[in-house]
Amino acid sequence: MKTKNISLGLIGAGRIGTFHAETIVYRVPNATLVSIADPAEGVAAALAARLGVEKSTSNISTLINDPDLQGVIIASPARFHTDLVIQACEAGKHVFVEKPMALTIENAKRAIDAAENAGVTLQVGFNRRWDQAFAEGRSAIAAGKIGAPQLLRSLTRDPGPFCADPAKIPQWTIFYETLIHDFDTLNWLNNGSKPVEVYATADALVAPEAKSSGYLDTAVVTIKYDNGAIAVAEANFSALYGYDIRGEVFGSEGMVTMGEMARSSMSLYSASGVAQDTLRKDTERFMWPYAAEFQGFVDAIAGERIEAPTGEDAKMALAIALAAIESVKSNAPVSIASVAQT
Amino acid sequence: MKTKNISLGLIGAGRIGTFHAETIVYRVPNATLVSIADPAEGVAAALAARLGVEKSTSNISTLINDPDLQGVIIASPARFHTDLVIQACEAGKHVFVEKPMALTIENAKRAIDAAENAGVTLQVGFNRRWDQAFAEGRSAIAAGKIGAPQLLRSLTRDPGPFCADPAKIPQWTIFYETLIHDFDTLNWLNNGSKPVEVYATADALVAPEAKSSGYLDTAVVTIKYDNGAIAVAEANFSALYGYDIRGEVFGSEGMVTMGEMARSSMSLYSASGVAQDTLRKDTERFMWPYAAEFQGFVDAIAGERIEAPTGEDAKMALAIALAAIESVKSNAPVSIASVAQT
Amino acid sequence: MKTKNISLGLIGAGRIGTFHAETIVYRVPNATLVSIADPAEGVAAALAARLGVEKSTSNISTLINDPDLQGVIIASPARFHTDLVIQACEAGKHVFVEKPMALTIENAKRAIDAAENAGVTLQVGFNRRWDQAFAEGRSAIAAGKIGAPQLLRSLTRDPGPFCADPAKIPQWTIFYETLIHDFDTLNWLNNGSKPVEVYATADALVAPEAKSSGYLDTAVVTIKYDNGAIAVAEANFSALYGYDIRGEVFGSEGMVTMGEMARSSMSLYSASGVAQDTLRKDTERFMWPYAAEFQGFVDAIAGERIEAPTGEDAKMALAIALAAIESVKSNAPVSIASVAQT
Amino acid sequence: MKTKNISLGLIGAGRIGTFHAETIVYRVPNATLVSIADPAEGVAAALAARLGVEKSTSNISTLINDPDLQGVIIASPARFHTDLVIQACEAGKHVFVEKPMALTIENAKRAIDAAENAGVTLQVGFNRRWDQAFAEGRSAIAAGKIGAPQLLRSLTRDPGPFCADPAKIPQWTIFYETLIHDFDTLNWLNNGSKPVEVYATADALVAPEAKSSGYLDTAVVTIKYDNGAIAVAEANFSALYGYDIRGEVFGSEGMVTMGEMARSSMSLYSASGVAQDTLRKDTERFMWPYAAEFQGFVDAIAGERIEAPTGEDAKMALAIALAAIESVKSNAPVSIASVAQT
Question: Ranges for the Gfo/Idh/MocA-like oxidoreductase N-terminal domain (chains A, B, C, D) (predicted)?
Answer without folding.
Answer: 7-126
